[in-house]
Amino acid sequence: MLYVTGTKLSVNSFMGIIMMVGIVVSNGVLLVDFANVLRRRGKPLHEATVLAGRTRLRPILMTTIATITALIPMALGLGEGSETNLPLARAVIGGLMVSTFFTLFLVPSLYTVLDRFAKRVSPNDEDLGDERTAAEDPAHA
Questions:
Q1: Angle between helix 86-101 and 11-40 (nearest 10)
Q2: What is the DSSP string of the chain?
Q3: For 57-111, how does the pLDDT look when each residue is reduced to its tens digit (9 = 90+)?
Q4: What do you get for the CA distance between the two ends of the chain, in Å?
Q5: CA angle 82, 87, 93 (to 5 degrees)
Q6: What pLDDT was estimated at residue 136?
Q7: Residue 31, exposed/middle/buried by CB under 10 A (0-12, 13-18, 19+)?
Q8: Helix axis angle, 45-76 to 86-101, nearest 10°
Q9: Which string of DSSP letters, residue by residue, matches 24-36?
Q10: Spatial distance between the Cα atoms of 51 and 33, rounded to a whole number of angstroms
Q11: What pTM did the predictor assign?
Q12: Residue partners of 5: CB distance under 8 A and separation at least 6
C-alpha cells in the first residue's frame, strides 16, 4: 500500500511493518498450533490442516478487519497533524491485506508440504500424535 499511495519509507512506516508482522506471525502460529493439537488428537494431516483453517478463519478475519477498519481514518489523514501517522497506517493496512491471504492459504500448504518432507527425511521418527518420553514408555529408552 505504501507503493500504491506513493508513501515513502520512514520510521513510522517501519513501525507499521513491525506491528503488521507481529499480527501476521500470531495468526500463523495460532493456525499451525491448532493443526498440531488436532493431529495429537488423532486427525490425519490433511483433515487437521483443513479443520484448523476453517476453525481459525473467523478469528483471523476478525483481527484483520478490525485492525484495518480502525486504521482507515489514520490512513486517510483526517485531522490536523495526522500526516505523521499516514505511513504507519498504510503499511499495516497494505501488509495485512496481503498477509491475510498468505496466512489462510500459504501457511496451511507449507505446513502440509513440510510435514510430508520431514517424514521422508526421518522415516523412523514417530508421528506428532505420540509424544511419550522414555520415562513413560520403556520401549522409547
A1: 30
A2: -HHHHTPPP-HHHHHHHHHHHHHHHHHHHHHHHHHHHHHHTT--HHHHHHHHHHHHHHHHHHHHHHHHHHHHHHHHT-STTGGGTHHHHHHHHHHHHHHHHIIIIIHHHHHHHHHHHHHHH-TTSPPTT----TTT-GGG-
A3: 999 999 999 999 998 988 888 777 777 788 888 889 989 999 999 898 999 999 9
A4: 55
A5: 105
A6: 52
A7: buried
A8: 160
A9: HHHHHHHHHHHHH
A10: 12
A11: 0.72
A12: 90
Q: Which three cell numbers stand for residue 72?
A: 482507515
- 91-118 as b/e: b if 16+ CB within 10 A: bbbbbbeebbeebbeebbeebbeebeee
Q: How many CB atoms lie within 10 A of CB 14?
A: 13
